Amino acid sequence: MAVDNRHRASQETWQHGGVTAATSSTLFPQGSTPGAYAATPRDADAVLDGLDPEQREVATSLHGAVCVLAGAGTGKTRAITHRIAYGVRAGILQPASVLAVTFTNRAAGEMRGRLRQLGAGGVQARTFHSAALRQLQYFWPKAVGGEVPRLVERKVQLVAEAAARCRVRLDRNELRDVTGEIEWSKVTQTVPEDYPAVAAKSGREAPRDAAEIGRIYATYEQLKRDRGVIDFEDVLLLTVGVLQERPDIADQVRRQYQHFVVDEYQDVSPLQQRLLDLWLGERESLCVVGDASQTIYSFTGATPDHLLNFRTRHPRATVVKLIRDYRSTPQVVHLANGLLSQARGRAAEHRLELVSQREAGPDPVYAAYADEPAEAEGTARRIRELITPVEQGGGGIPASQIAILYRVNAQSELYEQALADAQVPYQLRGAERFFERPEVREAGLLLRGAARGGSADPALADADIPSQVRAVLTTRGWTPEPPAGSGAVRDRWESLAALVRLAEDFAASRPGATLSDLVAELDERAAAQHAPTVEGVTLASLHAAKGLEWDAVFLVGLTEGMMPITYAKTEQQIEEERRLLYVGVTRARRHLALSWALSRAPGGRASRRPTRFLNGLRPGSQAIGARTPGGGGGIERGAAAPGGGGVRRRRGPVHCRVCGRALTDAGEMKLMRCEGCPSELDEALYERLRDWRAEQAGQLGQPTYCVFTDKTLLAIAEAVPGTEPELARISGVGRRKLDRFGADVLALCAGRELPSALDDEGDADAGGSHSGDPWQNSTEK
């Protein structure tokens, strides 16, 4: 894409890149129901309506640095857009002084749409690259002179030429991987001559000899200089250079932008962090949002260190933890929490224990298949049942609300064939973009012509928008009923049908709108790459699924060697694979299925094993390694924060270990489960514990509850702890009781018999029993 500087922005509008602010739009509805658009809040206070306590804290903490640790499905986008909108509506923030930064055009477009709906139009929401490019375009003539070099969108061809000049032959996969290494080098600010040493120190497995890649990288950079072009990474590098070398330009940017919000902060690269630091200067007017447990792009240079070190760099920052999961059922959340409970490393130490806010749903389904084709066929068969209407005995779930997620794109072929055989429509995510499809481009031209009165049926001149759209698209192959089978004809129909549904939703939300308004909406969606829903099952890699969600998710191919992937060797790489599976699990709202094949092809040896990440979680498997406790929600204020007298902590809610629901009843909290949830009580152990407790109480001359209450004994008999830390996590087992009674309880849980204290009066303390107990009339700690 060439950068056109013929129409430069005025001094007053450079932050928009010369583009005027978009008018109010219904582009991005709030809520999950298609076509449901919320009314604009009447005032600043109304912006806060419907926020939970932690989200409200995010929205109202408008001074100083703020770090929002937001688990999957906890409403982080809602929290930060309401934060910006509240600041603008309350007169605390000027719209033009706010820059919200995220990582995809779609996310930035969604954020702009939500802000407009909240009455905060004019706020800049861009990707790092988009924001940097606007600044580079504006300041280049002043800082360097002339026009910004042409931007090369696809660097693969240039890398191939550089390799040829170095007399290195690369196949298609190697070319892609070497290009990735060059991108990683640039975002980590590694120059070509340093690549071999830095790559080795970082533990990267280079696709070719590191010295060869360094030479290709150097030649690639020389080719760009010779041709006067730049790549996307150069946009950030050059913007950083301009701001570092020209303090006057940096001051101008800082005068313009007074407040920054960064979404998906766990994905920030060192280069992006450097740019952010230059934008900020010495100020702390920054709000970052992220989740270290969703760091899955380290191979591109992303690192959660900036998120995890935020409090170190900003000691007075307010930290807010969002753990209320509004997306997934307790059953899905329970699996997600369990998946991370055995994680290791620094990100695991900061993991968030999610608490579902939804009604209970079905348990996750685990399935082992004989071979990969059988797994694909079984998955397609289950999806066929889910999309069958309820009145016909099916699940009644739209195909667009179902996804099949896999580790690598090469796995999709089997599932495409299986879905086609089952006559289930599907769409490939990460393939051709919706608005770049020929039929969609052609439909857009026809609708634009119809809006101008050039090609619409005169009989439909007074018809509603959906009728006009159907009339236009009928000429290009749309029909009320889909064509039989799959393939190109069905794909074309699905694209046109998606435009028809979009027209129906748009008309319902905008009474009185015209076809011209719909065309403007389509143009805005195309610019933001916000495609309408195509009525088909989504096929996507786990990486491509980040940020999305469906009613039903099928996680397939979960075998050792695929999850974790074979080339994940180090602990850091394996833990990222675990986080990748966690991202997949948390995409599901209600239905979740996990499957694996025991062999690759029919008749093959059943030598494959399901992923280690499900050990202790799927039925019949044993947990490996100790589980790490997760962090609760709440708010922490910096020691010197305004109005704060030190760090304040709010304890997160206790939640059911079976269904994940937040608990408020004291008895349920002690049991760590709802009274109505299934009990895993070991009745024989419970009776042994009761007998032991009676003996201890008799020796102490105290009621039995002074040893342990019935609820605590029930919790012990259900959990059957095997170690002191596991026993200590049970409510009612304090430090003193653990020291006094822990050895006895753990012995009983292990099935060992204890000698009676009366067997040897001279050794009454054996096994943890004591007379003359000092805690008379005490309560449980």
TrEMBL record:
<dbReference type="InterPro" id="IPR002121">
    <property type="entry name" value="HRDC_dom"/>
</dbReference>
<feature type="domain" description="UvrD-like helicase C-terminal">
    <location>
        <begin position="330"/>
        <end position="590"/>
    </location>
</feature>
<feature type="compositionally biased region" description="Gly residues">
    <location>
        <begin position="628"/>
        <end position="646"/>
    </location>
</feature>
<feature type="region of interest" description="Disordered">
    <location>
        <begin position="607"/>
        <end position="647"/>
    </location>
</feature>
<feature type="domain" description="UvrD-like helicase ATP-binding">
    <location>
        <begin position="49"/>
        <end position="329"/>
    </location>
</feature>
<dbReference type="GO" id="GO:0004386">
    <property type="term" value="F:helicase activity"/>
</dbReference>
<protein>
    <recommendedName>
        <fullName>DNA 3'-5' helicase</fullName>
        <ecNumber>5.6.2.4</ecNumber>
    </recommendedName>
</protein>
<feature type="binding site">
    <location>
        <begin position="70"/>
        <end position="77"/>
    </location>
    <ligand>
        <name>ATP</name>
    </ligand>
</feature>
<dbReference type="InterPro" id="IPR000212">
    <property type="entry name" value="DNA_helicase_UvrD/REP"/>
</dbReference>
<feature type="region of interest" description="Disordered">
    <location>
        <begin position="758"/>
        <end position="781"/>
    </location>
</feature>
<feature type="compositionally biased region" description="Basic and acidic residues">
    <location>
        <begin position="1"/>
        <end position="10"/>
    </location>
</feature>
<comment type="similarity">
    <text>Belongs to the helicase family. UvrD subfamily.</text>
</comment>
<dbReference type="InterPro" id="IPR027417">
    <property type="entry name" value="P-loop_NTPase"/>
</dbReference>
<dbReference type="InterPro" id="IPR014017">
    <property type="entry name" value="DNA_helicase_UvrD-like_C"/>
</dbReference>
<keyword id="KW-0547">Nucleotide-binding</keyword>
<dbReference type="Pfam" id="PF00580">
    <property type="entry name" value="UvrD-helicase"/>
</dbReference>
<feature type="region of interest" description="Disordered">
    <location>
        <begin position="1"/>
        <end position="35"/>
    </location>
</feature>
<dbReference type="InterPro" id="IPR014016">
    <property type="entry name" value="UvrD-like_ATP-bd"/>
</dbReference>
<keyword id="KW-0067">ATP-binding</keyword>
<dbReference type="Pfam" id="PF00570">
    <property type="entry name" value="HRDC"/>
</dbReference>
<dbReference type="InterPro" id="IPR010997">
    <property type="entry name" value="HRDC-like_sf"/>
</dbReference>
<feature type="domain" description="HRDC">
    <location>
        <begin position="679"/>
        <end position="759"/>
    </location>
</feature>
<dbReference type="InterPro" id="IPR044876">
    <property type="entry name" value="HRDC_dom_sf"/>
</dbReference>
<keyword id="KW-0378">Hydrolase</keyword>
<keyword id="KW-0347">Helicase</keyword>
<feature type="compositionally biased region" description="Polar residues">
    <location>
        <begin position="21"/>
        <end position="33"/>
    </location>
</feature>
<dbReference type="Pfam" id="PF13361">
    <property type="entry name" value="UvrD_C"/>
</dbReference>
<dbReference type="InterPro" id="IPR013986">
    <property type="entry name" value="DExx_box_DNA_helicase_dom_sf"/>
</dbReference>
<keyword id="KW-0413">Isomerase</keyword>
